[in-house]
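Tokens for chain A. Residues wanted.
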């Protein structure tokens, strides 16, 4: 065999091998492939495995079917016309059944995010936020997110995009509303303080009443004791106690008139008399 024939044979083998290799493609797990022949997408998507396509005139676009995550900003006005800014983290995946339609209408995954998911997120947030006042957006955050999820899921489903979950990464309010919330909290704290002071004053007043009642009751009991037999002894005891509390020493002599009508003893110190 001549060298020219050998070269030709090798060339034909190489060309055949290249053509054969270009007609085979592999789809990995979690992917889907769309074959386009002369720029026109075929109607069936190819899932994981080895597949064949027309050589030289066809191309394969691979789409990731696993869960994708992107953060998307959104702005809206609430039912009471307050500005509300948010940032959502959206977990989604492409519907394998609609991959061909996605290839025809949206193209790449980047186009899907920028041309479909981002604007639909914005519109869905506007709808959800318009159903709540700004205070409800704070106190009913779960309901706000659920409304957003429902609207976004229905809108993206038409494009072959399945929303798996969303989360609110950030939720911001206008400076005016933030100031009003701060002022309201201060007013509430002052009101609570005023209630506490009023309650404290009321308790103190009640304590004074109780003390006055106790003193009155003590005086009543003392008066009844003085009226009873032996009341003069109480008077003497009170006189001695008062005299001692005045800072004087205990007297050496206590003189009583001996009269039953006498209530208070006469007190003197013998040493003072001698002086």
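Reply:
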């Amino acid at each position: 065999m001549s060298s020219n024939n050998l070269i030709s044979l090798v060339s034909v083998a190489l060309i055949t091998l290249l053509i054969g290799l270009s007609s085979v493609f592999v789809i990995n797990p979690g992917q889907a492939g769309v074959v386009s022949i002369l720029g026109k997408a075929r109607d069936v998507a190819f899932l994981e495995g080895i597949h064949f396509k027309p050589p030289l005139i066809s191309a394969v676009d691979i789409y990731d079917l696993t869960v994708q995550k992107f953060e998307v900003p959104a702005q809206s006005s609430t039912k009471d016309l307050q500005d509300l800014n948010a940032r959502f983290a959206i977990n989604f995946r492409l519907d394998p059944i609609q991959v061909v339609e996605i290839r025809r209408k949206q193209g790449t995954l980047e186009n899907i995010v920028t041309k479909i998911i981002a604007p639909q997120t914005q519109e869905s947030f506007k709808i959800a936020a318009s159903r709540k006042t700004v205070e409800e957006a704070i106190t009913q955050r779960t309901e706000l997110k659920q409304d957003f999820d429902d609207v976004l899921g229905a809108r993206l489903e038409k494009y072959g995009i399945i929303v798996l979950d969303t989360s609110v990464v950030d939720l911001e309010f206008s400076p005016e509303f933030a100031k009003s919330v701060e002022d309201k909290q201060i007013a509430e704290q002052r009101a609570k303080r005023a209630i506490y002071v009023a309650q404290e004053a009321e308790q103190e007043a009640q304590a004074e009443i109780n003390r006055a009642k106790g003193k009155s009751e003590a005086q009543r009991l003392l008066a009844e004791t003085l009226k009873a037999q032996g009341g003069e002894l109480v008077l003497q005891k009170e006189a001695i106690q008062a005299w001692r509390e005045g800072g004087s020493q205990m007297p050496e002599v206590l003189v009583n008139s001996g009269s039953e009508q006498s209530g208070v003893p006469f007190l003197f110190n013998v040493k003072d008399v001698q002086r």
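The chain has eight helices and ten strands. The helical segments are 3-22, 99-105, 109-129, 134-139, 141-157, 175-227, 231-245, 270-274.
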